[in-house]
Fold this protein.
Amino acid sequence: MMLEDVDLQLISDVARTLVALDEIDDLLSFCLPYPPIAQRTLDRIVLTCLVDEATPPGSLPGLVKWCHERPLLKWPLDLPSEVFSEESLLLDPSSGVLTELCVELAQLAGSRTPLGEAATIMNDAKPGLTRQENQEDYCELRRFLVDSPVLDNEVMRQVGFTVDVGRFDELLSSLYQPASARYERDGGLISCRECGDLMASVGDDDWSCEREACRRTGHQEIGKIWLASENVRHLPRRHRQFVGGPARVAIRLAGHPELLAMPGLRVDLWPGLGEYDLRITTPDGVEATVRVLDWHNPALLGMASRESGDRQTLHVVPDYRIDRDPNYIATVVRWDGGDATRFCSESELIRRIQDLYRKGGHGA
Ligand SMILES: [Zn+2]
């Protein structure tokens, strides 16, 4: 996607640099020569600072330190204050992992269709599947990825004997990647009890989950513990953020008691091998297709959805985003510039389906 604002484009390239470094290895252990995007971005930041008579970062590690410590609105750039807040950082100040904002900026700048590309990360699972025969297998695989965010030797052995996902053995081996050093402390790794994914080490005695959905309650409980020698693997960051997070919400919605309480209502999870997250059909055949979008930054989500071209699908945002920012949907709509009714919260979706159901002469 082409971002029109020069400084927004530059900070997005900083985000892309961090994502590229994160995919190589631990952000704190990189060495020369830097990846091309890193050197190019550092040069542009230094030039911008010199033009503005500000002190530039002296090196790539210096730039990374800025990302840790300096909120975006404090950079010597003219960034829109209606997009970012005083707390907007590219790296989590305590754990050093990429913030959700950073991954979203990188996605927005690095793709012509940011939402479409994020939704097709699962395309690797499609070859060999035909629509009718294998929809069930596909759903089984998606549920497995949500239920097993971390694989160790024992889970892999069980997978080999499981009929449902055993056929995806090779795909699973390529999807899951070894956990990097930042998830390890004193020879151990720990998962978050809420989502089951690995938590990053913070200081000498604390851990932090990268998901804002897990951090919103303030305290984070420990789930499972592994030894580093147990060959622990987990899904890549973009998958965790753009596929895993929304999948949890889609599963929650598919089993929502209010939907289950409407006899004859049909709810399909990931129909068309993941073409949508949900397809909801009323007894008289009225259909609503839903895509769940769980973005930290509503302005960036609006910019991303403006590029998607999909004007029919309902874009549903998890309730916890709205609880934190009551203006979230209004901000998305403002930056999207399209039909406001295309966006709603989880709760609003349930209300809309209830209305559709009653209009068809069903229910009370
Ligand atoms: Zn978590």
